[in-house]
Protein backbone atom coordinates (compact mmCIF):
# COMPACT_ATOMS: atom_id res chain seq x y z
CA UNK A 1 0.00 0.00 0.00
CA UNK A 2 1.36 3.43 -0.97
CA UNK A 3 0.95 6.29 1.51
CA UNK A 4 1.79 9.76 0.30
CA UNK A 5 3.84 12.10 2.46
CA UNK A 6 0.84 14.39 2.99
CA UNK A 7 -1.39 11.49 4.02
CA UNK A 8 1.27 10.26 6.43
CA UNK A 9 1.70 13.77 7.86
CA UNK A 10 -2.05 14.07 8.41
CA UNK A 11 -1.89 10.97 10.62
CA UNK A 12 0.88 12.32 12.87
CA UNK A 13 -0.34 13.07 16.40
CA UNK A 14 -1.11 16.77 16.84
CA UNK A 15 -1.05 17.68 13.13
CA UNK A 16 -4.54 19.23 13.20
CA UNK A 17 -3.74 21.03 16.46
CA UNK A 18 -0.51 22.48 15.05
CA UNK A 19 -2.41 23.65 11.98
CA UNK A 20 -5.05 25.31 14.20
CA UNK A 21 -2.38 27.14 16.23
CA UNK A 22 -0.56 28.29 13.10
CA UNK A 23 -3.84 29.52 11.62
CA UNK A 24 -4.62 31.40 14.85
CA UNK A 25 -1.18 33.03 14.77
CA UNK A 26 -1.66 34.13 11.15
CA UNK A 27 -5.13 35.49 11.98
CA UNK A 28 -3.66 37.46 14.87
CA UNK A 29 -0.93 38.86 12.57
CA UNK A 30 -3.65 40.04 10.17
CA UNK A 31 -5.53 41.67 13.08
CA UNK A 32 -2.32 43.43 14.16
CA UNK A 33 -1.81 44.75 10.61
CA UNK A 34 -5.43 46.06 10.62
CA UNK A 35 -5.01 47.47 14.17
CA UNK A 36 -8.12 45.56 15.33
CA UNK A 37 -7.39 45.46 19.06
CA UNK A 38 -10.46 43.39 19.98
CA UNK A 39 -9.48 40.69 17.49
CA UNK A 40 -5.82 40.80 18.57
CA UNK A 41 -6.82 40.30 22.21
CA UNK A 42 -9.24 37.47 21.37
CA UNK A 43 -6.20 35.17 21.05
CA UNK A 44 -5.03 35.71 24.67
CA UNK A 45 -6.11 34.22 27.98
CA UNK A 46 -7.22 36.77 30.60
CA UNK A 47 -4.04 36.05 32.58
CA UNK A 48 -1.64 36.30 29.60
CA UNK A 49 1.94 37.34 30.38
CA UNK A 50 4.51 38.86 28.05
CA UNK A 51 8.18 39.69 28.10
CA UNK A 52 8.67 42.26 25.34
CA UNK A 53 11.61 42.21 22.94
CA UNK A 54 13.74 44.55 25.05
CA UNK A 55 12.83 42.97 28.39
CA UNK A 56 9.81 44.89 29.68
CA UNK A 57 7.29 42.50 31.27
CA UNK A 58 3.51 42.79 31.43
CA UNK A 59 0.80 40.66 32.99
CA UNK A 60 -2.88 40.40 32.10
CA UNK A 61 -4.99 41.05 29.04
CA UNK A 62 -5.75 44.71 29.95
CA UNK A 63 -2.02 45.59 30.11
CA UNK A 64 -1.27 43.81 26.82
CA UNK A 65 -4.27 45.46 25.12
CA UNK A 66 -3.04 48.86 26.23
CA UNK A 67 0.14 48.41 24.15
CA UNK A 68 -1.95 48.10 21.01
CA UNK A 69 -4.56 50.69 22.02
CA UNK A 70 -1.83 53.33 22.45
CA UNK A 71 -0.57 52.82 18.89
CA UNK A 72 -1.71 55.36 16.32
CA UNK A 73 -2.65 53.26 13.28
CA UNK A 74 -2.09 56.14 10.84
CA UNK A 75 1.24 57.31 12.26
CA UNK A 76 4.24 56.77 9.98
CA UNK A 77 6.20 56.00 13.18
CA UNK A 78 3.98 53.08 14.21
CA UNK A 79 5.70 49.71 14.34
CA UNK A 80 3.59 46.81 13.07
CA UNK A 81 4.65 43.42 14.43
CA UNK A 82 4.46 40.07 12.71
CA UNK A 83 5.20 36.66 14.26
CA UNK A 84 6.20 33.74 12.03
CA UNK A 85 6.14 30.28 13.63
CA UNK A 86 9.07 27.98 12.87
CA UNK A 87 8.03 25.17 15.23
CA UNK A 88 4.87 24.19 17.11
CA UNK A 89 4.92 21.28 19.57
CA UNK A 90 1.59 20.03 20.93
CA UNK A 91 1.45 18.25 24.27
CA UNK A 92 0.20 14.69 24.35
CA UNK A 93 -0.93 14.65 27.99
CA UNK A 94 -2.29 18.19 28.49
CA UNK A 95 -4.01 20.78 26.29
CA UNK A 96 -0.78 22.78 25.92
CA UNK A 97 1.45 23.74 23.02
CA UNK A 98 4.82 25.44 22.59
CA UNK A 99 5.48 27.70 19.62
CA UNK A 100 8.80 29.21 18.58
CA UNK A 101 9.53 31.50 15.70
CA UNK A 102 10.87 34.79 14.43
CA UNK A 103 9.27 38.21 14.71
CA UNK A 104 9.67 41.47 12.83
CA UNK A 105 8.62 45.02 13.52
CA UNK A 106 7.96 47.07 10.38
CA UNK A 107 7.85 50.85 10.31
CA UNK A 108 4.56 52.47 9.33
CA UNK A 109 2.62 49.43 8.14
CA UNK A 110 2.89 45.72 7.40
CA UNK A 111 4.84 46.41 4.19
CA UNK A 112 7.27 48.95 5.69
CA UNK A 113 10.97 48.41 6.32
CA UNK A 114 11.96 46.06 9.14
CA UNK A 115 13.38 48.16 12.01
CA UNK A 116 13.51 45.54 14.76
CA UNK A 117 13.47 41.75 14.74
CA UNK A 118 14.21 38.72 16.86
CA UNK A 119 12.96 35.37 18.10
CA UNK A 120 10.00 34.45 20.27
CA UNK A 121 8.34 31.61 22.10
CA UNK A 122 4.73 31.21 23.16
CA UNK A 123 2.74 28.90 25.38
CA UNK A 124 -0.71 28.04 24.08
CA UNK A 125 -3.53 26.46 26.06
CA UNK A 126 -6.71 24.95 24.66
CA UNK A 127 -9.83 26.16 26.41
CA UNK A 128 -13.39 25.37 25.34
CA UNK A 129 -12.08 23.99 22.06
CA UNK A 130 -10.05 27.12 21.19
CA UNK A 131 -6.27 27.61 21.34
CA UNK A 132 -5.26 30.75 23.28
CA UNK A 133 -1.90 32.32 24.08
CA UNK A 134 -1.08 32.17 27.81
CA UNK A 135 2.45 33.60 27.63
CA UNK A 136 4.91 35.04 25.15
CA UNK A 137 8.61 35.86 25.35
CA UNK A 138 10.18 38.03 22.67
CA UNK A 139 13.91 38.72 22.35
CA UNK A 140 15.12 41.53 20.09
CA UNK A 141 18.26 40.51 18.24
CA UNK A 142 18.69 43.29 15.64
CA UNK A 143 17.44 46.77 14.97
CA UNK A 144 17.94 49.81 12.79
CA UNK A 145 16.54 53.32 12.48
CA UNK A 146 13.41 53.72 14.62
CA UNK A 147 14.00 50.26 16.09
CA UNK A 148 17.19 51.48 17.76
CA UNK A 149 15.31 54.31 19.48
CA UNK A 150 13.33 51.87 21.58
CA UNK A 151 14.30 51.56 25.24
CA UNK A 152 15.44 48.31 26.89
CA UNK A 153 14.27 47.36 30.37
CA UNK A 154 16.80 48.29 33.07
SSE layout and pairing:
Layout: H1 5-11, H2 15-34, H3 37-41, E1 44-51, E2 57-59, H4 61-69, E3 79-90, E4 96-107, E5 114-127, E6 130-143
Parallel strand pairs: 1-6
Antiparallel strand pairs: 1-2, 3-4, 4-5, 5-6
Describe this protein's structure:
The protein has 154 residues and is an alpha+beta fold. The protein has a single domain, classed as Nuclear Transport Factor 2, Chain: A (Roll), CATH 3.10.450.50. It has helices spanning 5-11, 15-34, 37-41, 61-69, and strands spanning 44-51, 57-59, 79-90, 96-107, 114-127, 130-143. It has a 6-stranded mixed β-sheet with strand order 2-1-6-5-4-3, covered by helices on one side. The radius of gyration is 17 Å and the shape is globular. The N and C termini lie far apart (61 Å).
What series of H and E elements makes up the topology?
A: HHHEEHEEEE
- Report mean pLDDT, rounded to a whole number: 89
Question: Could you give the order of strands across the largest sheet?
Answer: 2-1-6-5-4-3
Proportion of residues in β-strands: 35-45%
How big is the Rg?
Answer: 17 Å
List segments where confidence is low: pLDDT < 50 over at least 5 consecutive residues. 1-11
Number of helices: 4
Terminal-residue CA separation = 61 Å
